[in-house]
Amino acid sequence: MGELLSLGETGWGDEILRGAGMTVAVAVLAYVIGIVVGFGIAGAKLSGSRIARGAADGYTTVIRGVPELLVIYLLFFGMDPLIQAIAGAFGYTGTLRTDAFTVGTLAIALVSGAYSAEVIRGAILSVPKGQIEAGRAFGMGRVLIFRRILLPQLMRLALPGLGNVWQLTLKDTALISVTGLAELMRLTSVAARSTREPFLFYLTAALLYLAMTTVSTIAFQRAEKVYGRGAERA
Q1: What is the average pLDDT value for the chain, to the nearest integer?
Q2: Residue 210: its pLDDT value, please?
Q3: DSSP letters of 136-178?
Q4: Is residue 26 classed as helix, strand or coil in its secondary structure?
Q5: Which of 23, 29, 120, 172 is at a distance of 20 to 30 A from 148, taking alpha carbons?
Q6: Residues 83, 105: Cα–Cα separation, whole Å
Q7: C-alpha–C-alpha distance, residues 130 and 128, integer Å
Q8: pLDDT at 6
Q9: pLDDT of residue 230
Q10: Residue-wise DSSP of 77-119
């Protein structure tokens, strides 16, 4: 069994590690995009525009109500025709194709963004309105209020929830194996079929996922302590 997991031509160790690296790359990129989307959606939900609120509510309702695997399939089979149609409307007659990495990352980012939006919205609502009003009384603009008052407290209030979203994002990357992307789950499945040792390789994948989530949990816990110091003293 040790030979099957060894590095080099005789083992699958290097392939599994490359798959784990791809998993982390997809998860990090999707999570960052999801955070950006989450801020935008949270802002839309709290805006005074009915159209913006309706669109944001529709997005989070649909994405959170549909299985993640279905979101991946919809993008995998629907993104190329949509891009081709848009390009055709501008007179482009060539063929455009998206790769598995792009589709998988975007799909996971859409899911991550929907959950991040609710976490961020809840954190914003938890900030006392009196502090924002005080900032306005001192002549602060929206950007300065966000940077000096909202953002520091958002980091403290939203980190626990965003930590959970990260764990969800990391585990959801296993679903994009259906696109053919050579991430951890995909390469584990290939190794399991090739060697007829499914228990060994799936157990290895489980341990790698557990290691990644454990390190992530420790990192978020430390970040929570850093941003919670002021609140603890208060």
Answers
A1: 88
A2: 95
A3: HHTT--HHHHIIIIIHHHHHHHHHHHHHHHHHHHHHHGGGGGG
A4: helix
A5: 29
A6: 17
A7: 5
A8: 77
A9: 60
A10: HHHHHHHHHHHHHTT--S-----HHHHHHHHHHHHHHHHHHHH
Angle of CA points 92, 106, 198, to nearest 5°: 120
pLDDT in tens, 158-202: 999 999 999 999 999 999 998 889 899 999 999 999 888 899 999
Q: What's the length of the chain?
A: 234
Stated pTM of the model: 0.89
Phi/psi of residue 68, each to 5°?
A: -60, -35
The H-or-E segment that residue 188 falls in is helix 184-195
Which residues, 6+ apart, have CB-to-CB distance to 148 below 8 Å? 135, 140
Tokens of 148: 């000096």
CA 55 to chain centroid, in Å, comes to: 20
Q: Residue 127 and residue 79: Cα distance in Å, rounded?
A: 39
Mean pLDDT of all residues in 45-67: 92
Q: Position of tokens 């939203």?
A: 158
Q: Are 100 and 117 in contact (CB under 8 A)?
A: no
Average pLDDT rounded to a whole number, residues 206-234: 84
Computed on alpha carbons and rounded to an integer, the radius of gyration of the chain in Å comes to 22
Q: Are 127 and 154 contacting, i.e. CB atoms less than 8 angstroms apart?
A: yes
Q: Are the C-beta atoms of residues 42 and 120 closer than 8 Å to each other?
A: yes
Share of the chain above pLDDT 70, in %: 97
Joined together, the tokens standing for residue 54 give 């309706």
CA distance 32 to 200: 33
100-126 and 68-89 are packed helices; what angle lies between their axes, rounded to 10 degrees? 110
**What pLDDT sits at residue 234?**
43
